[in-house]
Write a structure and sequence with these properties.
alpha/beta; Rossmann fold; 2 domains; five-stranded parallel beta sheet; binds guanine
C-alpha cells in the first residue's frame, strides 16, 4: 500500500478546479479575484514563499499585487498601507507575510486587516469564529492538512491526534479543526513533559515545531498517520520536523517533504482568496 499523502497531487487537483471556477466567476461578475501580498523587508525565505503565492494566483487566473515595504518602515506607514488595501474595492484578499520585523506589533497590525479580506484567518474575528464552529476564514496550513486527511479517507473520529507546536498559524487552529473532526486532541510544546511518550500515543501525529528531523521512530506508534509541517533550513538544505527514512516503516501514512503540506497551504490560500472574493462581490 502506498503510504504517501501526496500534497503536490491534491494541490494540483484543487488548483485545476479553482481555475475553472475562477474563470466562471470572472465571466459572471466581470471582476477578477485579487490578492494583495505585503512583504516587509527582504528575508530570503519570505521572499520565496511570497513568490510561490503570487505565481499560484496567476496560474489560476487571479490577480496578485506584491507590496514590498522597507525593513525599517514605521508602524504608522504600514497601517496606512493596510487601510488603503481595506478601502480598495478591487482587492479581495490581504496577506501580511510573517514574520514581520520586531519593531512592529504584529498582533495589532493583523487585526487591522478587514476580517473579510483576511485570507490567512489570523484576525481575532476569524479565530473566534473557528473556535465556535462558525463559518470562518481558516488558516491555510491547517486547512490544507484537513483537506489531505479527507482526500485519503483517514479516520479522525475518536482518534487521538497529537499536535507538536502551539503556534497561532498551525498548532492552535489545527487543534480546533481536529476537534471539529471529533478527534481527541493533545497539544504538546516546548514545556511539555514526556513529549515523546505522548507523541507515541498518537493515531495522528502533526509535527509543527520547526526542529529539523526531531521526530524519529521512537516517537511513533505502529500504524500512525504522520503529518510534517516543519520547515528548517540548515546549510541551504531544507528539513522537515520528521525524519522520514527512520519512521516510514512504522507509519500507515505520511506526508513527504517537500510535496506534502507546503503545496496544500498554497492551494488553500487560493481557496480562501476565492472565498473572500465571493463574500465581497456576491
Ligand atoms: N509565515 C509562515 N507561514 C505563514 C502563513 O501561512 N501566512 C503568512 N502570512 N505568513 C506565514
Amino acid at each position: 500500500m502506498d503510504k504517501i499523502l501526496d500534497g503536490s497531487a491534491l494541490a494540483k487537483k484543487i488548483r485545476t478546479n479553482l481555475k475553472v471556477q475562477t474563470e466562471e466567476y470572472i465571466n459572471k461578475y466581470q471582476i477578477v479575484p485579487h490578492l494583495a501580498v505585503i512583504l516587509v523587508g527582504t528575508d530570503p525565505a519570505s521572499e520565496t514563499y511570497v513568490r510561490f503565492k503570487e505565481k499560484a494566483c496567476h496560474q489560476v487566473g487571479m490577480k496578485s499585487t506584491l507590496i514590498n515595504l522597507p525593513e525599517d518602515i514605521s508602524e504608522e506607514k504600514l497601517i496606512e498601507e493596510i487601510e488603503k488595501l481595506n478601502n480598495d474595492k478591487s482587492i479581495h484578499g490581504i496577506l501580511l507575510q510573517l514574520p514581520i520585523p520586531k519593531h512592529l506589533d504584529s498582533e495589532k497590525i493583523i487585526n487591522l486587516i478587514n476580517p473579510e479580506k483576511d485570507v490567512d484567518g489570523f484576525a481575532n474575528e476569524n479565530v473566534a469564529k473557528l473556535c465556535k464552529n462558525q463559518d470562518a476564514l481558516v488558516p491555510c496550513t491547517p486547512l490544507g492538512i484537513i483537506r489531505l486527511l479527507e482526500e485519503y479517507n483517514i479516520k479522525t473520529q475518536g482518534e487521538h491526534c497529537v499536535i507538536l507546536g502551539r503556534s497561532q498559524i498551525v498548532g492552535k487552529p489545527m487543534a480546533q479543526l481536529m476537534l471539529q473532526k471529533n478527534s481527541t486532541v493533545t497539544i504538546c510544546h516546548s514545556k511539555t513533559k514526556n513529549l515523546k511518550e505522548i507523541a507515541k500515543q498518537a493515531d495522528i501525529l502533526i509535527a509543527a515545531i520547526g526542529k529539523a528531523h526531531m521526530v524519529d521512530e521512537t516517537f511513533i506508534k505502529d500504524g500512525a498517520v504522520v503529518i510534517d509541517v516543519g520547515v528548517s533550513r540548515i546549510n541551504g538544505k531544507i528539513y522537515g520536523d520528521v525524519d522520514f527514512d527512520k519512521v516510514i516503516d512504522k507509519v500507515s501514512y505520511i506526508t513527504p517533504m517537500p510535496g506534502g503540506t507546503g503545496p496544500m497551504t498554497i492551494a488553500c490560500l487560493l481557496e480562501n482568496t476565492l472565498k473572500c472574493y465571493l463574500n465581497l462581490v456576491e
